[in-house]
Amino acid sequence: MAFQDVAAAIHRAQSVLGRRPQAGLHEDPPALAQWSRDTRVVTSHANGTQFQTDMPTELGGTGELITPGWLMRAGLASCTATSIAMAAATQSIELRRLEVLAASRSDARGLLGMSESDGTRVKPGPRRIQLTVRISAAGVPASRLRALIEESDRRSPVACALREALPIDLCIEVVED
Hints:
Blueprint: H1 3-19, E1 32-37, E2 40-44, E3 50-53, H2 68-90, E4 97-105, H3 108-111, E5 128-136, H4 142-155, H5 157-163
Antiparallel strand pairs: 1-2, 2-3, 4-5
Helix pairs in contact: 1-2, 2-4
């Protein structure tokens, strides 16, 4: 799909949502994760797409598959790149190159429920995340591309969820086999 087609689709959606803002609120397709064996998990989308995750060998996995943490970084990078591409299309900027690298630094002790020497619990998630964006577009000043990236980053749903520490409602269902 050419960037003009993307821009037209976005403008149509903006027009509809401008007239009927309530149409923008919707349930997102759920992700169903099912334990397979050991530390392997199969996750499914409602459209039938599936993928497997596993842990590194140091944590009891095979190390052959992607980890759930990598999927979080992949989702962040992909969502940010998509937001930038959509914004570029609406501004008639024809991108030549767009890459988003999401990197993080974590402490495995948190996943294992360990504590610091003073007794404080080690945080299980990443301590920091860094996004690096590489972009080029013929004839577009660097300042305009930087502004495009910064605005797109503020619109990225995954980045927003991570930055705003979205609350998670934990519902537990114990089933009998």
